[in-house]
Amino acid sequence: MEVKSRHHLRSDAVTDLEDTLAERFGIALDAEHYERVVLLDAPFEVVLIDGDPAAFRIDGEFAPTVRGANEFPPTERIVEVDAGAISFVSDGANVMRPGIVDADDAIDAGNVVTIAEETHGKTLAIGRAAVDGAEMVGESGMVVESIHHVGDDLYDFTP
Hints:
CATH class of the largest domain: Mainly Beta
Strand content: 35-45%
Distance between the termini: 10 Å
Mean pLDDT: 94
Number of domains: 2
Order of helices and strands: EHEEEEHEHEEEEEH
Low-confidence stretches: none
Strand order of the largest sheet: 7-11-10-9-6-8
Helix content: 10-25%
CATH architecture of the largest domain: Roll
Oligomer: single chain
Number of strands: 11
């Protein structure tokens, strides 16, 4: 991923980022420096929080990156998968109902969500819910479209 520009976030953008992550994901940021990185070849912008790519903006919406969600653990919009789904989700596969063990009932279809493994709670991916959280556990069907996962270009991005 090639960097087009890099700028410090204005105070109103920092407030928007902090408020959005707190309201949607229950993430409380504790940082001093925020930078916006615009990339030439990506559908999103990266936000460096104290120098680390901890958040991104996709379709105008802020969300944590996988690294950011593991550094600042979310308490909301979490979809938990079982051990059998870990390798698939980590490779960028969409999340299927049989692999889900729990999902936040407050998730609405279209929300950006974090996908975590059930044993240690580590985030494996960020995705977009295809159905409401209450409908995620079940026998068949795709319920979360993968946006960003462990090992992809965003995960490996270094400023």
